[in-house]
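Trying the structure run again after the queue cleared.
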Amino acid sequence: MRFFRSYVLTVILAVGTIIVPIQAAGDTKIALPLLAVLSAFMLAQEWSLGRFALFAIAFCLGPISEIISIEANLWSYTSSDVLGVPLWLPFVWGNAAVFIVRTEQFLRGPRL
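Done. Tokens:
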């Protein structure tokens, strides 16, 4: 049961990661601190150095891939703070990576 509750919390944090930028209407001053808090909870939920490394890699490489796409004129953000991307975007990428790994763990089932 604890395993299921832990995953439900992960889903809630992931949904929050989607809702915050939408509700903040791209306002970095609102979205950035809220996403940072969601990220802290996402990482603290099942802390490990590997999980933090995964978050950090996605935090860095996700926005880089978006910057490349923006430079190629594939899309743009209405509120862009640095190199065409909002400052809150790395937190979304980091949380997404953690969510994907947690979902994979959930689908495999609890370890006995």
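Residues 2-108 form one domain. Worth checking whether this holds up in the mutant runs.
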